[in-house]
TrEMBL record:
It comes from Nephila pilipes. Keywords: Membrane, Transmembrane, Transmembrane helix. The keyword Lyase does not apply. The chain crosses the membrane at residues 34-54, 66-87, 99-123, 144-166, 267-290, 302-322, 377-398. This is Gustatory receptor. It comes from the Eukaryota. The lineage of its organism: Eukaryota, Metazoa, Ecdysozoa, Arthropoda, Chelicerata. Signal peptide: none annotated. The keyword Transmembrane helix applies. The gene is AVEN_28735_1.
């Protein structure tokens, strides 16, 4: 079945797919499997209007209005707080990564916010392709996995914030704020209120920033999971083809799925880069804290473990899901290109069809259109961690020897 799609319209580098026939049946179960992720997006002001995914009730309408005004206010509050702590605290090496990650993540958030209608299109296109290929899977199970995945990632941040209140670092900050020039001498605010402001800023930063990171990571990961599953299902169908079978539906489906991958890259390539950078920065900060802040409290090791697990999960999710999707797409492309040799009697027909639909075009998911995501990226990241880990460990030993 050929999908009714008008030519791709290019606007500011984004390739947009317009659906002509909105009445075409969608795979509702697939759309429902994304409801946990869509709910997370809704909580940060990104509305994905996909049928059967969430209820447009009056409560959601009023909550959406509240989120519309609350998100910018929280962002301004968090940015102001991070700038304040950067100038207030003497340990700049800890506060600078926080500020840098916040600015990066907000830029990625605005990119996704402007592309929310394109995410809706991607979901609908994947739904229609699933329906046309008669791809069946346990979407209820996938929905549970998506919910568990989101809860696990966000749960790590919740535990991180709770452990922060019992950490040695918080006690050090509390002691510092007792003699703070800005709070005690300039604003003349009691130390308890200054510490309350510090705790509120940490909570807003942790919960707000991680909500944006978790929702985008989950959306990107599970879009890749569905795309990879469709490529794998398509490969099986191609292997089962016979001489007299109709090749056109599979060619059309592959062409549409390749367009979806290209659109995913247009929408999420910058966000994927930001998630990668934030994860690397977060992990380096954990490494730095464990090496150079051991004198604060043994609880610091426990305190930073949750951040390390969180950013490791984000990093692995992005690299593994994207690389496996690209590999699955390349395998299908190789199978289609080999069809003229498998069916010599239809050699010319298949050759013309492959050339006409541009089957040989590259399938790739990238980091901001500059670096292709593949399995080797994981090895490169691990190599970087090992290199800098040895460097940090050496510096830590030198520092301890100088103190002794």
């Amino acid at each position: 079945m050929k999908f009714p799609v008008v030519p791709l319209n290019k606007k500011k580098g984004i390739r947009v797919i317009f659906i002509q026939n909105e009445k075409e049946k969608l795979d509702v179960q697939f759309l429902k499997s994304f409801s946990p992720i869509i709910s997370l997006y809704f909580a940060i002001g990104i509305v994905i209007n996909v049928p059967e995914s969430y209820h447009s009730s009056r409560v959601y309408h009023h909550f959406g209005k509240f989120i519309k005004y609350a998100c910018p206010l929280l962002s301004v509050f968090t940015l102001f707080s991070q700038l304040l702590w950067l100038f207030e605290f003497p340990e700049k090496k800890i506060e600078v990564p926080f500020l840098f990650v916040f600015i990066l993540q907000n830029s990625a958030y605005f990119t996704v916010y402007r592309s929310q209608h394109l995410i809706e299109m991607i979901l609908k296109r994947l739904s229609q392709i699933s329906k046309s290929l008669k791809y069946g899977t346990d979407y209820k199970k996938r929905k549970l996995i998506a919910r568990f995945y989101c809860m696990l990632l966000y749960g790590l941040i919740v535990v991180y914030v709770i452990s922060y209140f019992y950490s040695g670092q918080r006690r050090v900050v509390k002691e510092y704020l007792k003699n703070s020039f800005f709070f005690k001498k300039f604003l003349q605010i009691p130390e308890n209120y200054a510490m309350l402001y510090r705790d509120a800023s940490v909570c807003c930063y942790s919960f707000g920033n991680s909500l944006a990171i978790t929702s985008t990571t989950a959306c990107y990961t599970f879009l890749c999971v569905q795309t990879q599953a469709l490529f794998t299902h398509m490969a099986k169908k191609i292997r089962d083809l016979r001489e007299g079978d109709n090749f056109y539906p599979l060619f059309d489906a592959y062409n549409e799925l390749a367009n979806v991958v290209s659109l995913m890259d247009d929408v999420f390539s910058f966000s994927a880069l930001v998630l990668m950078l934030n994860s690397m920065i977060g992990l380096f900060r954990v490494m730095y804290s464990l090496v150079f802040m051991q004198n604060i409290c043994i609880e610091n090791d426990f305190y930073f473990c949750f951040v390390g697990l969180y950013y490791s999960s984000v990093l692995l999710s992005i690299i593994l899901s994207a690389s496996e999707t690209v590999q699955a797409g390349k395998k299908v492309k190789e199978l289609i290109v080999s069809l003229p040799g498998i069916f010599p009697s239809r050699y010319q027909e298949l050759k013309m069809l492959i050339a006409k639909q541009n089957i040989k075009r590259e399938i790739a998911l990238t980091l901001w259109k500059t670096y292709a995501i593949d399995r080797s990226l994981l090895v490169s990241a691990l190599g970087t961690f090992v290199t800098y880990g040895l460097l940090f460990a050496t510096l830590g030993n030198v520092q301890n020897q100088e103190k002794n």
